[in-house]
Design brief:
By secondary structure, the protein is mainly alpha-helical. The protein has 17 helices and no strands. It is globular.
């Protein structure tokens, strides 16, 4: 079993390396991986151990840079075609691109219809709508990813069962109106739902570190595409509204009642399609983004740490300030994950890695100060759902960032490999979803739904 795990780790590292070759698409990587696994299986049957079989199979595939050059010659127009709205069918997609676009648009409209129906159903109960908004949108996004990967019944069941259970909990629990546990459920439900989206993304490869890291990469690129769509749509909508107002037409009822309920969830499905259809277009700028924002984040964390220390007694630290600090730490975690997903795991240590270590160290210092402030407040004023939820999140962040700093330091000192840091991220991330599920399901009855 240990040998199988090590072989899978080697294949995951190889896949991550090949995936960063701009002219090799994900479909090509999948094809190469299938060929590699076939070679390894044949070689193991001849009596070679896993390491020997893997090395010989890699040799038979040929030098990866040579493979990249071969693909570049054969598909020299691929990088330009990636910028087209609907690429041709030679990309290896299991369905023609026009058919895929039709599926995406249908699911995007379906998400809008679901949200519009939810608005009509819940009426003026805004908190009930907030509890269910993710439940209305995520099925359409998961359906696209599952359809794209031809997910089997096992994957569908793994998504459907917890989804139904979550839906029942959110709508059966007798939440106290505007109570803390209801607000916490609203905040943490998207985290649980995103884990279900991840299951649809990786399909049957649940235990693959490489596929989990692909989902991290997908999440980062999805955020970028969604932001671009939101900015572009906002400008277009603003200009349209301005023209209509000048001619005496009030566009607000239509915009708030119909355009936004369809545009916001629909854009999420379209953004996912863009990430899938244009592999590596955004990923090419990921290293640039991380190199710009890492030093800026370090400066921000140092300023925040100085402000926390200068604020005086930890008991008097404002609760809203602690919430804001949590948001900053989550942002740091997202930047860390995006940096790791964008890095070539076989490249030697560089200045960017040292800056990443400094950033994580500064985040650890901020987290330690926040934990001290939270524990002091709990000792002074007692527990509450908000305090326990925040304390749990900060403990999770402390462990995550602490081990990340340790593994980064090992890599920089030449005592470890970068893939160990990658594997730590992908294997720890489900812990956040598990904690979010505890907050949504356990906290309300534990604190009398208050």
């Amino acid at each position: 079993m240990a040998h199988d795990d090590e072989l899978e780790a080697q294949i995951d590292r190889w896949r991550g390396y090949v995936h960063r070759r701009q002219v090799i698409s994900s479909a090509d990587v999948d094809e190469l991986e299938d060929h590699l696994r076939g070679q390894v299986s044949d070689l193991r049957a001849t009596g070679l151990d896993d390491d020997e079989a893997f090395l010989v199979a890699i040799k038979r595939l040929g030098n990866l840079d040579a493979v990249s050059r071969e693909y570049a010659r054969e598909h020299s127009d691929r990088l330009w075609k990636q910028l087209a709205l609907v690429p041709d069918d030679s990309s290896g997609s299991p369905a023609p691109r026009w058919r895929e676009l039709a599926v995406v648009l249908a699911l995007a409209v379906g998400a809008g219809v679901a949200v519009r129906a939810g608005i009509a159903w819940f009426g003026d109960d805004e908190l009930a709508l907030a509890r269910n908004i993710g439940l209305l949108v995520v099925p359409f996004l998961a359906a696209y990813l599952g359809w794209k990967r031809q997910a089997g019944l096992r994957t569908v069941a793994a998504i459907a069962v917890p989804f139904v259970a979550l839906s029942v909990v959110l709508n059966v629990y007798p939440f106290v109106p505007e109570g803390s546990t209801e607000v916490l459920a609203i905040i943490h439900t998207p985290v649980v739902l995103w884990l279900l989206v991840g299951l649809a993304y990786v399909a049957g490869s649940w235990r693959s570190d490489g596929r989990r890291m692909d989902f991290v990469r997908f999440t980062g690129e999805l955020a970028i595409y969604y932001t671009l769509l939101a900015l572009g749509g906002g400008v277009l909508l603003g200009l349209t509204a301005g023209v209509l107002q000048l001619v005496g037409v009030d566009p607000e009822p239509v915009i708030t009642g119909w355009v936004m309920p369809f545009a916001v969830p629909g854009a999420l499905v379209v953004a996912a399609w863009l990430v899938e259809a244009k592999q590596d277009v955004v990923e090419n700028i990921a290293p640039v983004l991380t190199r710009i924002f890492t030093p800026l984040t370090i400066v921000m964390l140092v300023a925040v740490l100085a402000a926390l220390i200068a604020s005086g007694g930890l008991v008097e630290v404002d609760r809203d300030l602690l919430i804001l600090m949590d948001a900053i730490l989550v942002l740091v975690l997202a930047l860390l994950l995006y940096s790791i997903s964008a890095r070539d795991p076989l490249a030697p240590p560089a200045l960017a890695d040292w800056l990443q270590l400094v950033m994580v160290g500064a985040a650890l210092a901020v987290d330690a100060v926040m934990l001290t402030a939270m524990l002091t407040r709990i000792a002074e004023f007692g527990t509450s759902p908000n305090k326990v939820a925040a304390l749990g999140l900060n403990l999770l962040l402390l462990v995550h960032l602490g081990v990340s700093a340790w593994r980064t330091a090992r890599f920089l000192r030449g005592r470890g490999v970068f893939s160990e840091l990658e594997r730590w991220q992908t294997r720890y991330l489900p812990v956040y979803a598990a904690w979010a599920a505890v907050v949504v399901i356990v906290f309300p009855p534990l604190f009398d739904f208050a």
